[in-house]
Amino acid sequence: MPTFSHLTLPTKRLRLRPLCAADAPFIYALFTDAPFMRFGTTPPFSTMEQAQALIARDIQAMATGERLRLGIERLDDSSLIGICTLFNFDDPCRSAEIGYGLVSHAWGNGYMHEALIALLDFGFTELQLNRVEADIDPMNTDSAKSLERIGFTKEGHLRESCVVNGILTDSARYGLLHREWPHRQAAMVPV
Questions:
Q1: H or E element that contains 30
Q2: pTM of the model
């Protein structure tokens, strides 16, 4: 895997970039945002040190190509509004998982759609991934709509497969293949 330490992905309204130590207040705010954390599989952060540790782990994982987590920065005001991630790379199968999230005040503006198109395009073209998977809480209908709008197909429903906020919950599994990507991307309506 290549290093992702200096990777930036521009879009019309956003810049996807690696997180840095100065982003800890945003990461803390994101991981304490109740609407964002509603479907999270980790408890909300309780200290700024947790945000600093997440960024430190990401810096190391990005340098080795283990994980690609980018902050989503709005161009018009340079504020971070979310994160998107490719992780669990399986080199022999040319696959990875995708994760993403926005602070709740940025919802409903098409930012995540724009960011995920850039991230997936990088994954399919530059990393030559064949498959990208997403695992979401089936109750998270907004996330399901986002995935389906991009072209993901729901492939399964796993009963009581994870814990969200201390409660056993189901998960829905989605997948998108490289061969589907050019067709899906060409058919997308601009935001």
A1: helix 24-30
A2: 0.91
